[in-house]
Specification:
The chain has 249 residues and is of the alpha+beta class. It is built from five helices and eleven strands. Keywords: DNA damage, DNA repair, DNA-binding, Glycosidase, Hydrolase, Lyase, Multifunctional enzyme.
Length: 249
C-alpha cells in the first residue's frame, strides 16, 4: 500500500493511525537517503508516534525522526522498488515496515520536542484559541489568508481548510487582522477547527471533494456568482472566494 496524501492536519492524523501499530516495536533494519549509519536506529524501540499539524515525529529514546510530506510526499507500508520517488526513510521491524518517499525527513534530538508549541495544533486537544488570537493580534497588518496558513499559529491548516473555513465565516481572504473584531476572529477560528474535523470525517469515507464549496469551484453555492481565484497574501497561495458573500475588511 503506497499512499500519497495532501499534507494537512486531518490527513496526517490518518497516517498516524496506520503508524500506531509500530509503537513498542524494535527496528531490525533502516535505509533511505537520511540514514548514514543504520546502527544508530537498529535495535532501538519506537516509543511513540506524535503529530503536530503537518509534522510527524517517530520518537525513540534519545532521538526522533521528523517527517514532513511537503506537497508530493508519500508513505508506504511496504517497500516500492524502482520508483521515481526518492526513498528518504525506511524502517523495518520484525513483522512490519514503513517507507517515506519524496519528503523532508530529519533526525532530531528529543530536546527539540520540548520547544514545540503543542497548543498551536488546530486538531489537538491542547489547542488554545486565546493563544492563536494573541499571535494574530501581534501581526495587525497580516492578511487572514496568511494567518491561517502560518503553522506557528494554525498548525495543520492547509490551503483547502483555509479556503473553505473563510467561506463559512464569510470573510474575504485579503482582510487584515487589524480590521477584524474579536467576534470575527472567534468565528474564523471556530469554522477553521470545525472544518478540519469535517475534512477528517469526509476523508475517511473518500468523499472530501464532493463537499468543496469554493475550493476549485466556479460558482458560489450561496448566490450563484462566479468564484474568484487569486493568489493572495505574502505566500501567494491560491485563494477561492465569493466577492458577494465574503466581506473584505
Amino acid at each position: 500500500m503506497k499512499i500519497h496524501i495532501m499534507p494537512e492536519g486531518p490527513t496526517i492524523l490518518l497516517m498516524k493511525e496506520d503508524l500506531l501499530k509500530l509503537e513498542g516495536k524494535t527496528v531490525t533494519n533502516a535505509k533511505g537517503s537520511i540514514i548514514s549509519d543504520k546502527n544508530i536506529v537498529v535495535g532501538e524501540t519506537l516509543k511513540e508516534v506524535r503529530t503536530f499539524g503537518k509534522l510527524t515525529f517517530l520518537v525513540f529514546k534519545k532521538f526522533s525522526f521528523r517527517i514532513h510530506l511537503l506537497m508530493y510526499g508519500s508513505y508506504s507500508l511496504f517497500e516500492k522498488k524502482n520508483l521515481s520517488h526518492t526513498l528518504r526513510l525506511g524502517l523495518q521491524f520484525k513483522n512490519e515496515e514503513v517507507y517515506f518517499y519524496t519528503c523532508s525527513a530529519k533526525i532530531i534530538n528529543n530536546k527539540e520536542l520540548k520547544k514545540i508549541d503543542w497548543e498551536a495544533d488546530i486538531m489537538s486537544k491542547k489547542w488554545n484559541t486565546e493563544n492563536a488570537k494573541n499571535k494574530m493580534r501581534q501581526n495587525p497588518e497580516m492578511m487572514i489568508c496568511d494567518a491561517l496558513m502560518d503553522q506557528d499559529i494554525f498548525s495543520g491548516v492547509g490551503n483547502i481548510i483555509k479556503n473553505e473555513a473563510l467561506f463559512r465565516a464569510e470573510i474575504h481572504p485579503e482582510s487584515k487582522i487589524k480590521n477584524l473584531s474579536t467576534k470575527q476572529l472567534d468565528k474564523i477560528i471556530e469554522h477553521t477547527k470545525d472544518y478540519s474535523f469535517d475534512f477528517l470525517k469526509w476523508k475517511r469515507t473518500n468523499e472530501l471533494k464532493k463537499h468543496f464549496q469554493v475550493y476549485h469551484r466556479e460558482i458560489c453555492p450561496k448566490c450563484g456568482e462566479k468564484i474568484i481565484r487569486k493568489d493572495t497574501g505574502k505566500g501567494k497561495r491560491a485563494s477561492f472566494y465569493c466577492e458577494n458573500d465574503q466581506i473584505l475588511l
